[in-house]
Each structure stands twice: as C-alpha cells, then as structure tokens.
C-alpha cells in the first residue's frame, strides 16, 4: 500500500511539473510590462464583426486567406480592434474590426481589395503597449489575461478611461501586442466602425 501511495505522489508531482513547464512555455508566469511608444501608421484591411471576441480568429483567417489567394497580397500582421469591453457588454453585441495590416505601397491592389473589404489607415500615434509571447491559441488565452490585465492596470493608474484595444498578432516575431492609444479618444474610432 505504501508503494502505491508513493507512485501516486510521484505521478502527481510529475504531472504538476509538466503542467507548470507547459504554462511557463506559453508565458503564463511571465511579467508583462506596459511601455509608451509610437505605433503606426497601419493600412488595415478588415471586416466589421459583431459577436463574441472568440469568433475573431475565424474572421482573421478568412481575411488573411482571401488576401493571399485572391489578391496575392501578404499580410504583415493580423489584428483585432476591439471596441467594446466583453466584461461590460453582452458578448453577442461586442463590436470589432478584424483583419490584416498590409504594406501601404500596394495602391492598385488596395483598390481591388476595397471592393471586398474595408481599407483604412490608422495614423501614427503614441500608445501604451504590452507585448506577450505568441506560440498558438493557448498563448492568446494567457495573453488576454496578462496583456489586458497590464493595460487595465496602466489605464487606471494613468486615468485614461475606456478606449478600444488593438491586438496585433505578429507571426514572424511570435508576439501579440496589446495597444491602447494615448493620442486618440474613443470617438476617433467611430468612423472606422461606420465605414460601409
């Protein structure tokens, strides 16, 4: 009986160690610092999305695939500009712009793309930025906890108030960047949502 309990304890400790290693690899235990830095300008190709933020990944993949297959344009980054706080707004009513950031030197391509998607430029501006390691979808879950948590804390300390949050997914640098504009007020984003 003693041997069985030792094996059980050993297996439990091994499981906890493996779980801790997996969480560490995905960045769960990392500290996320907020820095003020300039971002943009960004040429955004996007679709409006109303619904749970969890559905954004499918929209992102659709836009990225369409840009590649139909327009032969490579996206630099995927993004989601989340207008509403899912903690205070019914998830089914959450508004967002979901898509890709492309190079701005593709004038002819952008004209064709604008027949299918909205194309707009987010100008350069100062922002509070929190970076988190991107490995896969589990990183997104942990990033929301850590990245958003850091931005909320920063926003409260600086008395910034409620603003849309821009999430930038950089596959090449394996990074998720959470961005809160310091230059633009909430009303600045209204025209992006209104573009048809």
Number of strands: 8
Largest sheet, if any? 8 strands, antiparallel
* CATH secondary-structure class of the largest domain: Alpha Beta
What's the helix-strand series? HEEHEEHEEHEEH
The rounded distance between the terminal residues' Cα atoms is 71 Å
How many helix segments?
5
Helix and strand composition category: alpha+beta
Strand content: 25-35%
CATH homology group of the largest domain: Regulatory factor, effector binding domain
- Rg to the nearest angstrom? 20 Å
- Give the CA-based shape: globular
Overview of the structural elements:
The structure is a single chain. By secondary structure, the protein is an alpha+beta fold. The chain has two domains: 1-30; 34-194, Multidrug-efflux Transporter 1 Regulator Bmrr, Chain A (Alpha-Beta Barrel), CATH 3.20.80. Helix content is 38%, strand content 29%. It is built from five helices and eight strands. The chain has helices at 2-25, 56-71, 107-113, 137-158, 190-194, and strands spanning 34-39, 42-50, 77-82, 95-102, 118-122, 125-133, 165-170, 175-181. It has an eight-stranded antiparallel beta sheet. The relative contact order is 0.18. The model has no long low-confidence stretch (mean pLDDT 82).
């Amino acid at each position: 009986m003693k041997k069985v309990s030792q094996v059980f304890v050993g297996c439990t400790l091994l499981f906890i160690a493996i779980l801790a290693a997996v969480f560490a690899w995905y960045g769960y235990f990392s500290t996320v610092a907020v820095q003020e830095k300039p971002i943009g300008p960004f040429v955004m190709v996007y679709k409006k999305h109303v619904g749970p933020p969890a559905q954004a990944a499918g929209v992102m993949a659709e836009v990225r695939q369409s840009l590649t297959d139909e327009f032969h344009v490579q996206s630099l980054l995927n993004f989601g500009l989340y207008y509403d706080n899912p903690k205070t707004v019914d998830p089914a009513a959450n508004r967002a712009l979901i898509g890709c950031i492309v190079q701005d030197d593709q004038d002819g391509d952008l004209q064709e793309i604008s027949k299918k998607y909205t194309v707009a430029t987010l100008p350069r501006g100062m922002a509070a930025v929190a970076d988190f390691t991107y490995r896969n979808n589990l990183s997104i879950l942990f990033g929301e906890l850590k990245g958003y948590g850091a931005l909320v804390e920063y926003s409260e300390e600086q008395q910034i108030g409620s603003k849309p949050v821009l999430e930038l997914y950089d596959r090449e640098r394996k990074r998720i960047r959470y961005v809160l504009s310091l230059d633009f007020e909430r009303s600045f984003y209204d025209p992006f949502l209104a573009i048809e």
